[in-house]
Amino acid sequence: MLTDKKIPPAFEAVRDQNEEIYWAGKPEFVPFILRGVPLLLLGFLAEWFYKGKAIEGLPGFFNVSTPLLLAGSLYMLYLFLVYGNTCYGYSNKRLMMRSGFFGIDFKTIDYDKISDIEVNVNPIENLFGVGTIQAFSGRTTEKGARIYDKFISIANPYEVFKRIKEVSVDVKTDWNYPNALRPEENPGYQTKYNPKKDGSYAG
Prior knowledge:
34% of the residues lie in helices and 24% in strands. By secondary structure, it is of the alpha+beta class. The strands form two sheets. The protein has a four-stranded antiparallel β-sheet with strand order 1-2-3-4, with helices on one face. It has a three-stranded antiparallel β-sheet with strand order 5-6-7. β6 (130-140) and β7 form a beta hairpin.
């Protein structure tokens, strides 16, 4: 697991002046790559069920199972190639995701955009003691299905999840109830960012 003193250059380059990154880490290699296995399994099942039946109009070697086997193999190759650029983190302002195939892609989600966050551990991740944190920030497909942003196959997923929830609650509370408007006996959450005295925020 990475610490704030070892933030990848891509995170450091986009970090705001007053932003503090609390955690950053890479996915575990094997479970991250094995996400392509389900497509391969479907391909092998199709091969067994259809007994290598060819698709009409295509060469004989191109049978019913070929698209699934090809898709699974290409997806695993893609995951292998993007793994080196993949990293996740969270700060006192947002969630941060780094990835990329040919170049480096960077995405962030401010805490006020997140309406739901949860931890999922699939059977493969369970074998390796890792899990996936997924956050919903309102994006959906054309058919209305939710689109989640994910920290995939990270170590200590429940601990990271709890810390993200704590920071998110602290930040949202200070946004909704600026410190300057609170009575002295209710100073609010002890967050690490510094709201200005007038209730607005630096940075």
